Structures are given as structure tokens and as C-alpha cells.
Amino acid sequence: MVPDCMVHARHCFILLGRHMESKNRAARFALTTVVFLVVLCGSCAEGEPRASSPPEPSSASLPGWLRAKIGQFEALPADRAPLGIWRITHDGKPAFYLLSPCCDQYNPLFSAEGTEICNPSGGFTGRGDGKCPEPMDRGTKAALVWSHPASTSLADDPPGLMRN
Fold it and tell me: Cystine design at 39: which of 4, 12, 72, 81 (Cβ 3.0–4.6 Å)?
């Protein structure tokens, strides 16, 4: 069964194709594609509610090593501290993903014990160090556990991780 948002987007696409009489095929194709994507994204986003995110874990539920690091991070200016920390599941175990404050820095993934596992994203290429191509287990959710007080609001999904 096709979701309602897809039917709506297809209908708009057909109507747009009928009304465009331009002889410039490249311009018509580009405009049609842009309109189709806007309609598709807009109609799906409005019609399908997002699952509610789990409550943010209290700092008491975080490992001691991470609470100590968070204390250090909060003392730093936002441009020198991680922007956020997410709890994810890696190889069936809890892990913590830190998003670095700026460009070309690795974004490390730590085990629950505090050992650095890998850097799944960041660096010059943005693809990390290549040691864990799938850092987050399929079908699991991420939870934002901390963000720097001076940073803007962060999404529940950590940027830079390959999602299922």
C-alpha cells in the first residue's frame, strides 16, 4: 500500500508535468524534480507523526568517567567543547558518541567503560577513521544525554552516524 503522502506527491507531479510547456528540457526536468521533492518531503513530514523520543537520562545514570568529562566540557567555551553526547548501542552494548565542535575533528565513540572504540565520523573526509563503518546497531535509537549549555538545540538523531 502506498502512503497518502506519496499519492499526494505523485498527483502534484503529474499536474505539474501537464502544465509545463517549456521547450527547455533541462530546466523543466530540474524544476519538476525540485517541486516533486518539496511536495514529497512536506506532505510526509506533516502527515506522519514522529515517534516520541525517550526521556533524557539523568546525569546519575551516566558512567562516572562521562560525568567527569561533562564537567570538564561545561567549563570550556562552546567552540572548544563537544556540542553534544548521545547514548547509542554498538555491538549490542551501550556506547557514547561525542560530536566535536568544529570542522575536520574526529567524532569519537566510547564504550560504556570509557575506552575509545573508533571515530565513526569527522576528520578531513567526514567519514571518520574507518574502524567502525556501522557504529550504531540497526533498529536501535539514539538518545541525546548532554549538550553544551552554549550550543544550539540538537536533534535526537546524532549527525554523522549511518542510520538504518
Answer: 12
Cβ atoms of 86 and 144 within 8 Å: the answer is yes
Q: Which three cell numbers stand for residue 141?
A: 535509537
Mean per-residue pLDDT, 77-103: 92
Nearest residue to 121 (alpha-carbon basis) of 103, 137, 138, 139:
103
How many degrees, rounded to 5, is the angle at CA 70 between CA 136 and CA 57?
A: 55
CA 3, CA 10: separation in Å to the nearest integer? Answer: 11
CA atoms within a 13 Å half-sphere pointing along the CA-CB vector of 149: 8
| Cβ-based burial of 44 (10 A; exposed 0-12, middle 13-18, buried ≥19) | middle
Is residue 39 over pLDDT 60?
A: no
